[in-house]
Design brief:
The protein is of the alpha+beta class. It contains 13 helices and 6 strands. Helix content is 49%, strand content 15%. Strands 5-4-3-2-1-6 form a 6-stranded antiparallel β-sheet.
Length: 284
């Protein structure tokens, strides 16, 4: 299939300009089929040179870009060129560790394994709230407190999580998991953490975020970057944050590329390609 192109031409264009590769990656989302096919062919021809850009696209919030970029990485992972194949596999394993379901599941299906052969996840690679985590920019949170009853509503990528805390009666959660409705009443925050750890994290962020005291029944809405200030502080050093306390897209991507470079310790050629992109971004 398409991987035969990668087999034959994995190193056909080792010096392909990074901007051109980025343009081809963007073209994967073109509305015209012929344009998408052309972009895929060019990226396969570019071989390992295209891997950093494909990895970035796989962590975007666009499902089509995620699927198509990972599929190309899968084709490159079958290349007869060992360096290209190894680099693609390391990248896929990294993506399979993502907390973004659409990315992780696609990468896992391509790898056909959950194991990462000892490769540890990179904290912050796709942390929610960064520009590279799908849905990071589409989360809205509202909090109200009426007569002691705290209500938290989180909407992310069309998925709504409803949390209501009634003094003496526990915390009720209504959400869904993989399309299945969930309706749970936890005794307290500790019980919620035990039963639904991801929802507990939302609860903790919302109840500890700035500007959330709404004792007069007013509804507070705030950007996700503020709601997740603690999580961002934990994942990202101060140098990666801008004046608003948000993750700098450029700095976060530099972290990711440096981590991918570290994982490519046994592939000097791939490290050199990553170095080129890191140096180019550092000049911006």
């Amino acid at each position: 299939m398409s991987h035969t192109i990668a087999d034959e031409k994995a190193d056909a264009k080792p010096d392909t300009d990074m901007q051109q590769i980025d343009a081809w990656v963007e073209q994967l989302g073109h509305q015209t089929l012929t344009k998408r096919v052309q972009a895929k062919k060019e990226l396969l021809n570019a071989g390992k040179t295209a891997i950093p850009s494909l990895a970035k696209a796989a962590l975007s919030d666009k499902r089509e870009a995620i699927e198509r970029s990972i599929d190309i990485l899968g084709a490159l992972a079958q290349s007869k060129d060992e360096e290209t194949a190894d680099a693609a596999r390391v990248t896929l394993k990294m993506l399979s560790e993502s907390k973004q379901p659409s990315t992780a599941e696609r990468a896992k299906s391509v790898l056909n394994t959950k194991e990462a052969d000892g490769i540890k996840p990179f904290e912050g690679w796709d942390k929610a709230g960064t520009p590279f985590a799908g849905g990071g920019g589409t989360r809205s949170v509202s909090v109200s407190n009426v007569n002691g009853v705290r209500t938290i509503t989180v909407v992310e990528n069309g998925r709504e999580t409803f949390i209501q805390e009634v003094p003496g009666r526990g915390i009720r959660v209504k959400t869904e998991d993989d399309g299945k409705p969930i309706d749970v009443i936890a005794r307290n925050a500790a019980d919620l953490e035990k039963r639904l750890p991801e929802v507990h994290e939302l609860y903790k962020q919302a109840t500890s975020g700035p500007g959330l005291t709404t004792g007069f029944g007013q509804v507070g809405a705030f950007p996700f970057a503020n709601a997740n200030a603690v999580a961002i502080a934990n994942c990202c050093p101060p140098s990666t944050l801008n004046s608003a306390g948000q993750v700098s897209a450029n700095q976060m991507l530099l972290q990711q590329l440096n981590e991918l470079k570290r994982r490519m310790a046994g592939n000097p050629a791939m490290q050199q390609l990553l170095d080129q992109q890191i140096q180019a971004m550092s000049k911006d």
